Amino acid sequence: MKKILYTVCSANHLAHCKTMVHSFMEHHEGYEIVIGLVDRIDDRFTEEEFLPCRLVEIEKMDIPDFQDLLFRYTVIELNCAMKVFVAEYIFQQYHPDILLYLDSDMWVKGSLQELEAQLAEHPILLTPHFTVPLPDNTAKPLERDLLRSGIYNAGFMAYRRSETVTRFLQWWREHMRGECYYNFAEGMGVDQIWLNLVPLLFEETGIVRHPGANVAYWNLHERSLSEQEGKVMVNGTHPLLFLHISGYRFDEPEKISRHQDRFLMSDQPVLRQMLDAYRALVIGNGYQKFSPMPCLYAKPVKKSTGLMRTVNQLLKPLGVKLSNS
I want to staple 89 with a disulfide (CB 3.0 to 4.6 A). Which of 61, 70, 241, 270 is the partner? Predict the structure, then answer.
């Protein structure tokens, strides 16, 4: 059985990417790894630095109308949109039986064999942001925030090669051509918001409820971390599989995430210790080298103001932007 793990990122996240990949390889054998680079190498580094991974520049994947996507999307939006195109490229070029996706800001702490086994019954696996109601709606994130950004987190997905997955990727890809924006007022939460529909449109989809999968600031109310015999456990009963380190800034190590104010680092001793260790690993994997690198697809953006700003907000879902000049 051929198995591949893939991720997508721009050059500035390659130190995080290396850390994620190394952590995955510690717990898994027999996987090939593909990094979809939403950027250009341009003599700034080499493919050999990432062996045994395949580092593939996105332009070399022959994505139809790619230049239109560059015009349409910001760098973050472009990275999100590329997930589906890279998945299709991998299925077409390398023909895996199993394909896993992990964001570059994941830290794998255990084997995903249990999740992989679920693919025998479900060709698509998704992880919900949480499965227990938040205790209140006065601190961020609110349940409303997670409704706007998507019920399921697009930082992890798993596929088994099948007709269902082919249809799903075709469907998702068509939305990613022109509807992968950050625009909550228009109900658009980049690639992630579309996953809300997947269990309805593709009934074989499986929902991962393992407490150790995709632990992050948005589910700390239902998942407490502890250390037992050198292993990190969730709720004292389940091993931590992977931590999603979303919104954590190296220059603000006392904050769990810039996206939340619900939890304090001082109340999360195991998480604090883990984030300190993670930061050291990323720095050791070239953070100072990679993090300042601009994405070579980024274009200067002149912010519109007043009436023009309002007009552009209305036009953004159409892929149109007017200029003040």
Answer: 61
Euclidean distance between the first and the last CA atom of the chain, given in angstroms as a whole number: 57
The span from the CA of 14 to the CA of 36, in Å, is: 11
* Per-residue model confidence (pLDDT) at position 324: 45
pLDDT of residue 289: 97
Across the beta sheet with 124-128, what order do the strands follow? 54-57, 31-37, 3-9, 98-102, 152-160, 124-128, 206-207
The mean pLDDT of 146-160, rounded to a whole number, is 96
Rounded CA gap, 149 and 92, in Å?
30
Residue with tokens 């990679």: 290
